[in-house]
Design goal:
136 residues; mainly alpha; two-stranded antiparallel sheet; 5 helices
């Protein structure tokens, strides 16, 4: 995979992580009530509001976003790109598995969007981890 492709994947992922993280950290109750936005509400059906958990999730996503943005800036650094992929997989695989096991609380559209949205991070993580060649 070229450094240019890696850079695009990394920036898209960093921006997405920033969206989730900033919202959850700065407005945790609104995030809990309205995530992912756009008229969809995925979190209220998973349990009651927990400010501590919401803010921790926000900080986690911002940390992942910071790592990912750093890797995007240095997309030619194969070690950093692969490490970023591994870190996303460590977080995203169990996260996706949890949500797949609990899809029964959602309607059909929300099920598909949940799997696609969370699957993005697993797919990108796997692609980045397997990056064998990047140009400087």
């Amino acid at each position: 995979m070229s450094a240019r492709v890696c850079r695009w994947l990394l920036w898209i992922t960093a921006v997405t992580a920033g969206y989730v993280g900033f919202w959850a950290l700065c407005a945790p109750r609104l995030w809990q009530e309205a995530f992912p936005g756009f008229g969809l509400r995925w979190l209220p059906v998973l349990g009651p509001y927990n400010e501590h958990l919401s803010r921790d999730v926000g900080a986690l996503y911002l940390a992942l976003g910071a790592l990912t943005a750093g890797a995007a800036v240095r997309a030619g650094d194969r070690y950093l790109v692969r490490l970023t992929g591994a870190v996303w997989l460590v977080f995203s695989v169990p996260h996706l598995v949890f949500h797949v096991v609990h899809l029964d609380v959602y309607g059909p559209l929300d099920r598909v969007l949940n799997v696609l949205g969370l699957g993005w991070f697993v797919l990108v993580g796997a692609l980045l981890l397997s990056a064998r060649r990047t140009a400087r």
